[in-house]
Every structure is written in structure tokens, then in C-alpha cells.
Amino acid sequence: MWLLQRIFAMIRMIMAISQTCLVLMVRSVAVAVQTFLHCRLLVAQLLQRLHDSIYDALDSAMDYIERVHDEIHKYNAVGRCVLCMNKLTADDDRLKDACAVCLTSMDVHTSRLTPCGHVFHGKCLKLCLRVLPHCPMCRYQLITGAIAH
Fold it and tell me: Which of 54, 67, 72, 148 could bridge across to 133 with cysteines, CB 3.0–4.6 Å?
């Protein structure tokens, strides 16, 4: 009888240990599932941030391309504007004057006469007009509209 009691006690102890092991295994599985789900959430958040960053970068690139396009358009428009201005004739007294931008003498081939009556080298006038759309001497508006912006 004593032996039988010892066997039942051992069986109860084995069952208790088995239950504890089972509880620990269930908890371990629950922690593993929770960790997996948390990692999955973190990966989803990182992918969303990456997605947002890519679209922000694309937006910035498109804005930059648009600004460069506008600058190229403005650059070309300024060049056409200066080329359309009249040159001085060989008998014009203003050829004796110096260019107000570079302070060198004027010549028939490179001089340009603005609508406000001032004379500059074509290259000097282009440089000024790329910064501001006004005559460098009197601030007369030489370029108007979308080209000036």
C-alpha cells in the first residue's frame, strides 16, 4: 500500500510537471505569435515610411525639374529679347560711350539699344536681365509677364 501511495504521488508530480510544461509551452507560443505580429507591424510601418519617402522625393524631384525648366525658358527668352533689340549704327554717337555694365567701349556688332534708349553690350544686358527684368540704368521694365518670373 505504501508503494502504491508512492507511485500515485509520483504520477501526480509528473502530471503537475507536465501541466507546468504545457502552460510554459502555450505561453512561449503566445509570446512567439505576439512577437511575430509586432515585427509584422513594424515592417508594415517601415514600408509605409519608405513609400512616403519615395513619393516625397519624387515630388521634390518634379518640383526641381519644373524650376529648372522655368529657368531654361527664362534664359532662352532673355536671349531672344536681347537679340530682338536694335543694334547701333556706325554713325551713332553713343558708340563713343562705355557699356555701363562692364565699362568697356561699345562697338557696332555687340551693342544693343534698349527701348528706354540706353546702350549695352548684348552679353552684358543678358546677364543683367537674367537677374532682374529691368534696364540696369533706369529700371524700365524690359521683360514682362511670365518670362520675368
Answer: 148
Which fold, 68-149? Herpes Virus-1 (3.30.40)
Name the residue ranges covered by the structural domains of the chain: 68-149
Between CA 110 and CA 117, with CA 116 as vertex, the angle to 5 degrees is 50
pTM of the entire predicted model? 0.49
pLDDT in tens, 19-43: 888 888 888 888 888 999 999 999 9
Instruction: Give the integer Cα–Cα distance in Å for 35 and 145.
Output: 62
> Mapping DSSP to helix (H, G, I), strand (E, B) and coil, where does residue 82 land?
helix
Pairing verdict, β 111-113 and 119-121: antiparallel
